[in-house]
Amino acid sequence: MKPRRLHILSTIALACTVALSASAVFGQSHGQGQGSCSMAGTWYGGGDAAKYLTYIAPGAGSDFSLVSDGAFSLGTLGLPVKTIYTGSITRNQGKFDVYAMSFVNDTTAFPAPVPQINAAHATATLVDCDTLRFDFDFFGGYLWNSNKTPFVDTPDYVVSPPPFSEVYHRMPTTCPQCAKH
Prior knowledge:
Blueprint: H1 3-29, E1 41-46, E2 51-58, E3 64-70, E4 81-82, E5 85-92, E6 95-105, E7 116-128, E8 131-143, E9 157-158, E10 164-170
Antiparallel strand pairs: 1-2, 1-10, 2-3, 3-5, 4-6, 5-6, 6-7, 7-8, 8-9, 8-10
């Protein structure tokens, strides 16, 4: 085979390999195609009471990490300071368990005399590639000075009584409106 023809065939083979690899990677992370969905990405939504912007990053194996920030203030509830929720999504016997925590304080004083931990557990389900549902079965609050371990010990109070669900939609990664402006 002539060197030029070999170079052309090698280039075509490499281009096909790159295209297939990119399709697999981007198809999964952006939710294209049934069966190749992933929770990884940016999501918006929530429940009746609160809306969130949530980012889910892939972790080791089939696990994920999440950060979620609510579009609300807890100041009207006497909690002027809150952090974003951070957590883990782990595969457990064919389902995905979501564990997330946030700090809240009932004062703006520094250091806060008694910070509190809000801890939530849910089961995550990809309804389709662009819709994610969290079904909550636990949402407890822990006072820092109670020396309790979130999720393990009985909470000091219930933040919001379960069960309840939240639905999220994947942020699009195309913008037909962008070219119009």
